[in-house]
Amino acid sequence: MAATVYYLNLRFAFLPDMMMFVLGFLILLMAAYVFTYPKFKTEQLLAAFFGVFYVAVMLSYVYQTRILVAGQYIVWLIFLCSWGCDTCAYCVGMLIGKHKMSPKLSPKKSVEGAVGGVIGAALLTLIYGMIFRDAMGMEMTHVWILAGISAAGALISMVGDLTASAIKRNYGIKDYGNLIPGHGGILDRFDSVIFTAPIIYFLAANLIVF
Question: How many C-beta atoms surround the C-beta of residue 116 within 10 A?
């Protein structure tokens, strides 16, 4: 219900201040916690609050990026730097990866792979920007800025990936779901996108000036 209210507000803007949503949701959760005590545990309260912001709010920046000027093109940066970084990091890590980045969370990820992923995401965005530069109405300077934005997004995407891994390790599970055989659930495919979307939105909104 909270996620629904949040998304409706994105479309119709009936809340003058988003802090009303945050505080209202928290107060309602606390009211449910208090008046049904001891039915629910504190960690359930925190999980509900965390879930709305970790998934619904952060993913909403895909939509918010889409409605920016030239957003129909910029929004693809979210996936370019998330999945592009993941693919490039895997390839570079397999070829020359020696130094483990986070051995306890993800033993296969290497520092060399991470560097390759960031550079790869930036190069993919550079190519993408050069192809669609005229359609976006951008100068070459903007394309370089987009590449820099993707590099920053790629760094953050790795944090998102490792965060999802940490949560799963904490609860002793391999995947969030089993919807996609061999890949897990939807959240397993979008763990890095969740972190990347807000970064791309804010950087693009503030750095790309037409």
Answer: 23
Tens digit of pLDDT at every position of the chain (210 positions): 999 999 999 999 999 999 999 999 999 999 999 999 999 999 999 999 999 999 999 999 999 999 998 899 999 999 998 988 888 988 998 888 788 887 777 777 888 999 999 999 999 999 999 999 998 888 899 999 999 999 999 999 988 888 888 888 887 877 777 776 666 677 777 888 999 999 999 999 999 865
Q: Angle at Cα 172 formed by Cα 166 and Cα 173, nearest 5°?
A: 85
pTM of the model: 0.87
Cα separation, 111 vs 104, in Å, equals: 14
Who's near 116: CB < 8 A, 6+ residues apart? Answer: 88, 89, 91, 92, 93
- Cα 67 to Cα 131: distance, rounded to the nearest angstrom: 21
Are the beta carbons of 164 and 195 closer than 8 angstroms? Answer: no
Domain boundaries, the chain: 72-207
Residue 175's contacts (CB-CB under 8 Å, 6 or more residues apart) are: 168, 183, 184, 185, 188
Cα distance between residue 175 and residue 164, in whole Å? 9
What HEC string does 64-104 produce?
HHHCCCCHHHHCHHHHHHHHHHHHHHHHHHHHHCCCEEECC
